[in-house]
Amino acid sequence: MQEQLRLQNQLCFPLYAVSKAVTRLYLSYLTPLGITYTQYVVFLVLFEQDGIRVKELGKRLFLDSGTLSPLLEKLEKQGYVEKGKSLDKRERIVTLTAKGKALEATLAPIPFQIASRLQLNEDEAKTLYTLSYRLLNQLEEDHE
Amino acid sequence: MQEQLRLQNQLCFPLYAVSKAVTRLYLSYLTPLGITYTQYVVFLVLFEQDGIRVKELGKRLFLDSGTLSPLLEKLEKQGYVEKGKSLDKRERIVTLTAKGKALEATLAPIPFQIASRLQLNEDEAKTLYTLSYRLLNQLEEDHE
DNA sequence: TCTAAATAGATTGCATACAATTTATCTATC
DNA sequence: GATAGATAAATTGTATGCAATCTATTTAGA
Predict the structure, then answer these.
(1) Is residue A59 part of a domain?
(2) Is the minimum CB–CB distance between B113 and chain A shorter than 8 Å?
(3) pLDDT tens for residues B75-90?
(4) Average pLDDT in the A74-87 region?
(5) With bands split at pLDDT 50, 70 and 90, how would you rate the model's confidence at B69?
(6) Domain span at residue A29?
(7) Which residues touch strand D (CB under 7 A)?
(8) Which of A69, B70, B121, B128 is the most buried (most CB within 10 A)?
(9) Does residue A144 surpass a pLDDT of 80?
């Protein structure tokens, strides 16, 4: 058996598995609110930068229009966002409605609730955060 | 704006994004071979433990039958695996065919090719690996 | 032994992801 | 001003993930 092919010798696998496990933890808080994890991170961006182009949203979240177009359509149908026009008619501007803005207060406790469920101390969390971002940024650079 | 809701203050996000980025890197090697990332990790388990129950495969990979059933069906159609019966008639035993076994040699170089693309030193990679697994194991414990 | 509860795997339904393609629009260049 | 190439977003097609449900089989307890 080729040693380097053992599952336990792959760095990719814990990254893949932990990402799914963390998403599932979020879902235990988000599903009762009727939103998904991807929708959650879309809202986080919109709370920071309301009135953003779909392209910019995709850049922040590393998602393309194939994912965002149907997702935004659903959010629009549910009354959370509106997709307005831009001067450049190719672009669409995503804006939170009042209902969408109200979600910020509803979602505010979630990061604390999640943090209380993760048994990592501050150093460990920071290290995991930093290394993940370093790897992410490298891979995204290569990707361009 | 609620500080704790800023995207940059979320640990979940780099985990989510880096997992997708790493998967995409693998796909650049796997797609030419006609296999997906999830199929790849299924093969890794089968190389270690040929003739495994679907349940056990799912336990190793944190995947359920909703994902594995159609995936194994495709691998069977492509001639990589066979699904045999067990004494317990509820169970199915997954076995590599000759074509499936031959894939081990084909896949063997990939971990080296991937490693050469990741600009992490050994310590960093080990830390990322360890912290990811620690978090994963915690979350999976809670999940049960 | 008979049957209720548990278990394995398949199926269904929904929501991503993302490559590739399409459509509409813009921009640079002549 | 006409047009080729670039760009933004939508659409298409394929493959996950996973909760919930269904079916077949096994097991445990009265």
Answers:
(1) yes
(2) no
(3) 999 999 999 999 999 9
(4) 96
(5) very high
(6) 21-108
(7) A 16, 20-21, 23-24, 27, 53-55, 58, 64-66, 68-70, 72-73, 83, 86, 88, 90-92; B 23, 36-39, 62-67, 70-71, 74, 87-90
(8) B128
(9) no
- Whole-prediction pTM value? 0.94
Indicate whether B119 belongs to any domain.
Answer: no
Q: Average pLDDT for residues A35-45, to the nearest whole number?
A: 98
Q: What are phi and psi of B118, to 5 degrees?
A: -90, 120
> Which pLDDT band holds residue B1 (cuts at 50, 70, 90)?
confident
Strand, coil or helix: A88: coil
Distance CA B136, CA A44 (A): 24
**Mean pLDDT throughout A73-99?**
96
Region A118-129 average pLDDT:
93
Q: Which helix (H) or strand (E) holds A65?
A: helix A65-77
The label of the residue with tokens 């994890």 reads A37
Residue B5: closest CA among A99, A96, A49, A135: A49
CATH number at residue A63: 1.10.10.10
Query: Could you say which residues from 11 to 50 on chain B have a Cβ atom under 8 Å away from some Cβ of chain A?
Result: 11-26, 37, 41, 44-45, 47-48
State the sign of the Cα–Cα–Cα–Cα dihedral A32, A36, A41, A47.
Answer: negative
| Element of type H or E holding A40 | helix A37-48
**Residue A35 resides in a domain:** yes
A108–B5 CB contact, under 8 Å: yes
Res. B16 pLDDT band, cuts 50 70 90: very high
Q: How many Å from the CA of A21 to C1' of C6?
A: 26
Q: How many structural domains does chain B have?
A: 1
